[in-house]
Amino acid sequence: MDTGKKPEWSDPNEPGKFSSVIRKGQELESQATSIPKNIRFQKRQSIEPSVEELFNGVIKGDRSLLARAITLVESNAEHHFYKAQELLQKLLDKSGNSIRIGITGVPGAGKSTFIEAFGTYLCGLGLQVAVLAIDPSSSLSGGSILGDKTRMEQLARNPRAFIRPSPTAGKLGGVHRKTREAMLLCEAAGFDVILIETVGVGQSEVIIRDMVDFFMLLVLTGAGDELQGMKKGIMELADAVIVHKADGENRGKAEQTRKEYSRILHFLQPATKGWATKAYTCSSVNGYGISGIWDVIKLFEETGNMSGVLAERRKSQQRTWIYSMITDQLHYSFFHHPEVKVMLPQLENQVMAGEKTAASAVETLFSAYFATNNKQQP
Ligand SMILES: Nc1nc2c(ncn2[C@@H]2O[C@H](COP(=O)(O)OP(=O)(O)OP(=O)(O)O)[C@@H](O)[C@H]2O)c(=O)[nH]1
Ligand SMILES: [Mg+2]
What we know:
The chain is globular and about 80 Å long. The protein has 15 helices and seven strands. By secondary structure, the protein is α/β, with parallel strands linked by helices. Among the domains are: about 95-305, Rossmann fold (3-Layer(aba) Sandwich), CATH 3.40.50; about 325-375, no CATH class. The chain has helices at about 50-60, 65-75, 80-90, 110-125, 140, 155, 175-190, 205-210, 225-230, 230-235, 250-265, 290-305, 310-335, 340-350, 360-375, and strands at about 100-105, 130-135, 160-165, 195-200, 215-220, 240-245, 280. It is about 50% helix and about 10% strand. Guanosine-5'-triphosphate binds next to helix 4.
């Protein structure tokens, strides 16, 4: 059928092969519409709320403005960084009134399911619960693997709960600055309990330990080998070890595993002065042990407040925060320096080929960095 119409493009050597048939559009007379000439289409502008609007929204506990404030804190744009800092500064004295709880454990230990059960229980007590996540791998992959609201379906629907998946890393501080600041925003919004989930793969436990009051490690049963191989260091960071999935046939085994952990904990240095870290069992599927864990945390808070250990911990966490931000920013600024970026792979090759010492390669890189970096913003 030749309608006289031509495709937009076809291969000159094989005309017709890639062409498509173009037909005239048909319009039913009854439905024919014409757009009045005076109508103008405009791109929808997303209006950024001002610091004042965000401040008022957050302190009123407005969820949507809280979410936007966290987005601002998580932004990698430099002008957002300064705006976010202005907001945080204004909110600083409104934060700090929650109990901050960190939850770690190997992938599949059931952290998200635990948060679903535990968070729902806390909401049932009338508490407001915010859930944040640190995903240590996101700084490598640039994506979030903990965006698993699906594991927290019930909690996500609870009006007393607020769930925020993990941010991705980037300029100006990385994942843990963003999580820490998101935590402050949630506190200013009136949340009583902050739950922070992180995958236990080593380094992230230390980061989260430095952010929370109470830190718990979820472990599984039948993990005798794991127990043997588990780094003493990780257990020494915990204020409670929870043998999880203590349900069905696993209940008895969980009790056994709890005793084994208790024995080991007895010989370890406790994470918090004046607090004996113990092992407990619980199930997030049938709720066994969940309320007991909250009792433990309440007792921890009470004793920590009385002895002043918790206030001391928060103070020293503030100090650690300064240093970790300095390290983050220096790291970022160095590795994103244009000349360093070009020179580094070449120097790396020279060092690997034995043509240059590592020290002289580093010297060259720092000379290039300092030569131009003093013109840049910190
Ligand atoms: N029997 C039983 N299964 C559970 C329990 N809690 C979690 N699970 C199951 O364990 C699996 C892993 O649970 P998640 O909550 O995704 O574990 P996670 O530790 O958050 O995993 P990552 O986020 O990937 O590190 C899921 O299939 C859950 O259904 C429990 O208390 N009892
Ligand atoms: Mg999870």
